[in-house]
Amino acid sequence: MKKIKSVLNATGWLSSLFLVVGCQSPAITVTNSLFGINLDDNMKGRNLGAAVAWDEQWAGSMTSPARNQLYAQGIAKGTPEFNLRVVRVNTRFEFSGLFASTGDRMWLTSAVVPDHLPKLHMYDLVEIRQTDTFQVNKDFASKGEGNIVVRILCKYGTPDYEACLDRQPRIGKHRGFGETNTPYPVSIKEYGFTYTPMYDAEGRAIR
After folding, report:
1. 54-93: string of b/e by CB count within 10 Å (b at 16+)?
2. pTM of the model
3. Rounded to an integer, what distance in angstroms lies between the CA atom of residue 152 and that of residue 80?
4. Beta carbons within 8 Å of 165's beta carbon, 6+ residues apart
5. Cα distance between residue 75 and residue 9, in whole Å
6. Is the pLDDT of residue 7 over 60?
7. d(CA 12, CA 7)
8. Which of 109, 186, 189, 206 sits in a 20 to 30 Å window from 43, CA-based?
9. What is the pLDDT of residues 117-151, one digit of tens each?
10. What are phi and psi of 113, to 5 degrees?
11. Of residues 88, 83, 82, the one with CA closest to residue 66
């Protein structure tokens, strides 16, 4: 449990970057481009274990830094994606950096939650279909492609949560992260999931 909480409680350099940038604006995308940020190949185009960073809620109810992080993933205010069920999730890099042990470096991204899954909460461990580094949910409503939550692996608060974490893949000492080795379909349409808007423009639940 401590390993899951450590990644969720860490602010990370990416969060700090968005704090400096301020409100949602194209400056976020430009800044990321200038920094040349890109995920490792083994973190793109595959299914990964990820920890839910905060309780699922309307994007407009999130803090400014959180909304900016969503913006970097293509979920902007005024777009259909803003009113879908979305969560911010943490994944981990397999390879260590100069000052980090294996798995200590984290990456915070977004994923759309399909209709059939229950509300997700902080510390839930899920499997996500991870597509790319940035803009992973841009035009999701019209194209039907992007990062999604495929399934719940371990539900926080259940009696077997710790035992469940032990059964999951791990990166270094961190349980629940890395490739899940499940099929990665060409299109998310192959899952047969639906993604209905959850909120209206004011953040009121409509279903």
Report:
1. bebbbbeebeebbbbbbbbbbbbeebebbbbbbbbbbbbb
2. 0.84
3. 24
4. 1, 3, 4, 125, 154, 175, 176
5. 23
6. no
7. 9
8. 189
9. 999 999 999 999 999 999 999 999 999 999 999 99
10. -100, 125
11. 88
Residues 9-45 have pLDDT tens digits of 443 444 444 444 455 555 444 444 444 578 888 899 9
Q: Which of 1, 3, 2 is nearest to 106 (CA)?
A: 3
Q: What are phi and psi of 81, to 5 degrees?
A: -65, -30
Nearest to 47 by CA among 144, 194, 181: 181
- Residue the block writes with tokens 């949602």: 24
Instruction: Supply 40's token pair.
Output: 């490792």
3-state secondary structure of 132: coil
- How big is the chain by its Cα radius of gyration, in Å? 16
What value, to the nearest 5°, has the Cα angle with vertex 116 and ends 113 and 117? 55
